[in-house]
Amino acid sequence: MTKASPRFKRIMLKLSGEALAGEAGSGIDGNILNAMASDISEIIKSGVQVALVIGGGNFVRGVQISSSGGMNRAAGDAMGMLGTVMNCLAMQDALDKVGCPSTVMSAVKMEPVCEYFDRRKALKLLNDSQVVLFGAGTGNPFFTTDTAAALRAIETECDVIIKATKVDGVYSADPKKDPTAVKFDYISCDEVLQKKLGVMDLTAITLCQDHQMPILVFKMEAGNLQTAVYNNKIGTFVSP
Question: 34: which of 23, 27, 223, 232 is 20 to 30 A away, CA to CA?
Fold first, then answer.
């Protein structure tokens, strides 16, 4: 197997909840979950360390239910945090099945379901080749899992954030709505902020820019993670 580039020694993998749902649009598609677990297991075997944040949009989005149902935004976001933990537990189970050790850490205390976030322990687990899954976002309302991924990537000294989505990179506009949208192979955080492109939310992009954290965005399909890790000739590379 091709060895990973040294700068990808430790990655933060950010998965969208919707991507895990597949065509159903909600819940978890077991085939997608198992395929991603297998991909993660393969790169772990090659010596790459993997931290993981999964969104909760396949279960609930706080901003959606608060705006449509009149629910308090903080309460809606708390529900969204629980959705991310559910996804982490599902991924942990899939990783167990392929023999890949992992630990789920939550930003809010919920033992014995999972462990409470501890930066020093997370670093030790990563060094021991365990996948560390970070659930419950930042533990605070009004912050997205994109921001949580940026925060945890910086805290755990990752080399890059790899964001796997339903789109094959960053475009000048939504390619589903605008057929003239142009895909970028490379773009800077400054350009993303200026053009307000939908890479990650602007708070996350600012964090990445301030802490020199690059981002690689690509489509979540079988085998794409290996390509992203080994030579990054895929998707869009966002430089800080």
Answer: 232
Q: What pLDDT is recorded for position 232?
A: 64
CATH 3.90.980.10 fits 6-239, yes or no: no
DSSP labels, the chain: -PPPPGGGSEEEEEE-HHHHHGGGSSS--HHHHHHHHHHHHHHHHTT-EEEEEE--TTT--HHHHHHHH---HHHHHHHHHHHHHHHHHHHHHHHHHTT--EEEEESS--TTTSEEP-HHHHHHHHHTT-EEEEESTTSSTT--HHHHHHHHHHHTT-SEEEEEESSSSEESS-TTT-TT--EESEEEHHHHHHHT-SSS-HHHHHHHHHTT--EEEEE--TTHHHHHHHT--SSEEEE-
Tell me what pLDDT residue 135 has. 97
Instruction: Give the residues of the chain that fall short of pLDDT 50.
Output: 1-6
Q: What CA–CA distances, in Å, run from 117 to 54, 120, 161?
A: 15, 9, 19
Q: What is the pTM of this model?
A: 0.91
pLDDT for 1 equals 41
Report pLDDT for 59: 85
Interstrand relation of 102-106 and 160-165 (parallel, antiparallel or unpaired):
unpaired
Domains of the chain: which residue ranges?
6-239
Distance CA 169, CA 216 (A): 8
pLDDT given for residue 2 in this prediction? 45
Hey, what are 73's tokens?
Answer: 């935004």
